[in-house]
Amino acid sequence: MFDGLLMYIVGGAVIGILARFFKPGADPVGWIMTILLGALGAAAGGYIAGMLNVTNRMVVWAIAIVAAIVLLFLWEAVRGKKPRAA
């Protein structure tokens, strides 16, 4: 069980970092949120790949990274711009 959790964290970190690298613009997202969005992107990408019957691991990773990029955009839209204190 611990090995599976550790792999989700490591995989989420890798996918989150790659998503932040490919997403244009500044992203002031912390490491924990990067790992969470990456893990969610990996889960969503795996689900989408399963629905599309994709078996190639590289294509599954690409779908996971794209899903994480979409989640970054959604997170940015939901979080919005915070007003600056004077």
Automatic annotation (TrEMBL):
<keyword id="KW-0472">Membrane</keyword>
<dbReference type="GO" id="GO:0005886">
    <property type="term" value="C:plasma membrane"/>
</dbReference>
<dbReference type="InterPro" id="IPR007341">
    <property type="entry name" value="Transgly_assoc"/>
</dbReference>
<feature type="transmembrane region" description="Helical">
    <location>
        <begin position="6"/>
        <end position="22"/>
    </location>
</feature>
<comment type="similarity">
    <text>Belongs to the UPF0410 family.</text>
</comment>
<protein>
    <submittedName>
        <fullName>GlsB/YeaQ/YmgE family stress response membrane protein</fullName>
    </submittedName>
</protein>
<keyword id="KW-1003">Cell membrane</keyword>
<keyword id="KW-1133">Transmembrane helix</keyword>
<feature type="transmembrane region" description="Helical">
    <location>
        <begin position="58"/>
        <end position="78"/>
    </location>
</feature>
<feature type="transmembrane region" description="Helical">
    <location>
        <begin position="29"/>
        <end position="52"/>
    </location>
</feature>
<keyword id="KW-0812">Transmembrane</keyword>
